[in-house]
Write a structure and sequence with these properties.
Elements: E1 2-10, H1 14-25, E2 30-34, H2 41-49, E3 54-55, H3 65-74, H4 77-86, E4 91-93, E5 98-101, H5 106-119, E6 123-126, E7 130-136, E8 139-144, E9 147-156, H6 173-177, E10 183-189, E11 193-195, E12 207-216, E13 219-230, E14 234-236, H7 238-244, E15 252-256, H8 266-279, H9 295-304, H10 319-330, E16 332-339, E17 347-352, E18 370-372, H11 386-400
The structure holds flavin-adenine dinucleotide (FAD).
Flavin-adenine dinucleotide is lined by residues 10-16, 33-36, 41-43, 45-47, 52, 129-130, 157-159, 162-163, 167-168, 171-172, 346-347, 374-375, 385-388, 391.
Length: 412
């Protein structure tokens, strides 16, 4: 293989495909190199197969917020809506500003991006791993097992390390560090947490609404609200995934189950528990919490409140024990023992230092002609479409390379 193109894009994920489309629409000849047998394998798996591709509400990015803000100021909700509209994708906004394709199928997004690449004559070399980059006299040499490709601009959009089975295995970091760029330490984010087995014994499969606070040596590190899913290894669900970025073994989760149910405060819940106790005097203890939580969860809450439920009827539970139970419903403690690794994570926290790139074009401030887009940068957002939104925005801007377009807002 000895080819020339004006732009070579390394990585056929959302950032790479969006970049290919806008560059080709500007008249560039584009080659896209993808190590997997198909492009956008990860995009196809997003949002439980529904593809939550952006969010209309502003949010703070826990990693690389300055870069995310700068990129989204140039290619934000309006510009991305326009991009999808012009390329024929009907969008549908659901709760909390989450935007999906109207079909609620990620395959619609994947197919559409591939069709436009084909329409625009983008050459897609799948099953092609890029192993090295070299610049000579302003021309890039892209090294693959099949040979060398020559181009004027090289865009590295190879993703991070999350879910390597879907393509992104961290191999592209070395392409940029070899050019003098800085790699910040990487860790899995938006992943599940492993916990002590005892407090959650028998709860696997139960979903609850909760506010979860991450505590380290009694100090609050972070908090999140949403669905929590008990599993056989620990806990999952959106609110847990959002805390995973900061979590480490030795931390403790404080799970507030009662607040999101509108059960007021511990004293108010205590009054209610007293009433419930009188209703179920001679019955099994767990009936006190019937209608509040599932019986399996009720038993673990009794354990946490030091109530020996096996030996009592509801009427034998003391006022002091009911006070503890009310407290536990607002503060159910689960010690963290670890977190699921890159194989399960949705994104990588850390990556190539985004300050080394111009947010208007995504061009390197160190090496002219070199660009980076998407998750390879040290930008990671919360759940809700923010990671794809950054991937698409940075890809679109890298493809445009500062040229005028409805998908790029000119900032004065
Ligand atoms: C299960 C799951 C669900 C998710 N759901 C959502 C969601 O609903 N909303 C949201 O906003 N975000 C979601 N994310 C995160 C989102 O998918 C990523 O942030 C996004 O895909 C990053 O896009 P990217 O183009 O930068 O990288 P990637 O999508 O990782 O694409 C990079 C591509 O580069 C290729 N590549 C890597 N190295 C090389 C090489 N050396 N040579 C050639 N090719 C290479 C890879 O094979 C890959 O195809 C989810 C992630 C996962 C894993």
């Amino acid at each position: 293989m000895k080819q020339t193109a004006s732009v070579a894009i390394i990585g056929g994920g959302p950032a790479g495909l969006a970049c290919a489309i806008t560059a080709a629409e500007c008249g560039d000849s584009v080659v896209l190199l993808e190590r997997m047998d198909r492009t956008a394998r990860k995009l196809a798996a997003t949002g439980n197969g529904r593809c939550n591709l952006m969010n209309t509400r502003p949010a703070t990015y826990p990693g690389g917020d300055d870069m995310a803000r700068a990129v989204l100021a140039r290619c934000g909700v309006l510009e991305q809506r326009r991009f999808w509209q012009d390329h024929g994708l009907i969008l549908r906004e659901e709760s909390e500003g989450r935007v999906y394709p109207a079909t609620l199928q990620s395959s619609s997004v994947v197919d559409l991006l591939r069709y436009h690449c084909e329409r625009l004559g983008v050459q897609m070399l799948t099953g092609t791993t890029v192993a090295g980059l070299r610049q000579r006299d302003g021309i890039w040499q892209i090294q693959t097992e099949e040979g060398i490709l020559f181009c004027r601009r090289a865009v590295v959009a190879g993703g991070g390390k999350a879910q390597p089975k879907l393509g992104s295995n961290g191999s592209c970091y070395a392409l940029l560090t070899a050019q003098g760029h800085t790699l910040k330490p990487c860790r899995p984010s938006l992943t599940q947490l492993e916990t002590d087995a005892a407090p959650i014994r028998g709860l696997s499969g139960i979903r609850v609404k909760a506010t979860v606070t991450l505590l380290r040596e009694a100090a609050v590190r972070a908090a999140s609200e949403g669905e929590l899913l008990f599993t056989d290894y620990g806990v999952s669900g959106i609110c847990v995934m959002e805390l995973s970025r900061d979590a480490q073994p030795g931390d403790v989760l404080s799970v507030n189950l009662a607040g999101p149910m509108g059960l007021g405060s511990p004293p108010a819940l205590y009054q209610d528990l007293v009433r419930r106790r009188s209703l179920w005097q001679r019955e099994e203890t767990e009936k006190i919490l019937s209608g509040v939580v599932l019986p399996r969860l009720a038993l673990r809450l009794y354990d946490a409140a030091n109530i020996r439920w096996q030996h009592h009827t509801a009427g034998e539970i003391t006022d002091q024990q009911l006070l503890s139970l009310a407290d536990v419903c607002f503060d159910f403690r689960i010690p963290v023992t670890g977190k699921r690794g890159f194989e399960n994570a949705q994104v990588t926290a850390g990556g190539i230092d985004s300050r080394e790139f111009d947010p208007d074009t995504l061009q390197s401030r160190l090496v002219p002609g070199l660009y980076a887009a998407g998750e390879i940068l040290d930008v990671d957002g919360p759940c809700g479409g923010y990671n794809l939104m950054f991937a698409f925005a940075s890809g679109i801007l890298a493809g445009l390379d500062g040229r005028k377009s409805p998908y790029r807002r000119e900032l004065t």
